[in-house]
Task: structure prediction
Amino acid sequence: MRRQEFVVIGWRPPKYGVDNVRGLFLATYEEGQLTYRGGVGTGFTDKTRREVWEVLQLIQTDEQPPVVGMPRPEMRAARWVAPRLLAEVEYTEITPDGVLRHPSFKGLREDKPALEVHLEGRPNG
Result:
């Protein structure tokens, strides 16, 4: 298992109900641009889902951040946030198209600026 932080660019709301997070959309900065890395929907407890939702409300925006490589279905589902919150995620690997495989949410981080988050093990931009 690998573990690193990712920039939260939005969240997927639940299919039913409100005030909750079904999953987070993640990115890293590569060559100065946000690059889509997939989403994470596992690893949350009911309590952490509510806590994350409350934090997301503070940075929610109607404007989609400029993100490279995000599929249209995810774009349509996303509720956007300013790209400054970091999520610590554990995963098995990065797929050939640059997306996380088997991601699991481990927590939020506030100890690093979002602009410093690059995909580890690859050249930084």
The chain has one domain: 2-116. Residues 2-116 form a domain with the OB fold (Dihydrolipoamide Acetyltransferase, E2P) fold (CATH 2.40.50.140). Residues 46-59 form the longest helix (14 residues).
